[in-house]
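Lab notebook, bench 4. Still working through the backlog of constructs that have no structural model yet. Next entry is a single chain of 180 residues. Request: give me the structure tokens for it.
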Amino acid sequence: MAVYVNNTDYYQRNKSAVLNPEKIAIIAKCIGIEPKLVFKNLFIQMAYNQHHQLTVARQISELIQLKKQDIKLVVNNLTKFFKESKNNNQAATVLKEVLGILSKVCARNKVALICTGDSNVTSKGIIPRPIGGTYLKHSVNVVVHLRESSHFLFKATLIKHQYVKTPKSAILHSRKTGGG
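Model written out:
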């Protein structure tokens, strides 16, 4: 089972407020998994602002502790609300709390935690830094930057890994899985 945190600002117009089940089904079919099996094993939590993201992190912590043997993956767009915040210090504090809650419960229960987020581009544009300051950079084990280089081609740059000292890049090829 997996938990996905869909961080969405409901107040922005022209933004999708919910995760599209049709796209999940299309992706599942493309990789050969029955969509019903995916939906049966996927918990989706919605967070609509930074403070709600913190509440959702606590709820996920309780859910993992209740279903210890079942949940194996947590995916969270961690920095979604950081960029939109007017107070970066407050945003950084909430970000630290959310990451702290999720990383502790996932480590204790052997659950993989994947946090996606935006990046700041350095002045030279070579190695991007994750939004969230140095705390985020130091608290995670692996940082990978994905950037679309052309249609269906993505460049993945391994920025941080505990066993690799220098950044490495790879070109990933993708196939179209739906209307976007």
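Notes after review: The mean pLDDT is 77. The chain has two domains: 2-131, 141-180. Flag for follow-up if needed.
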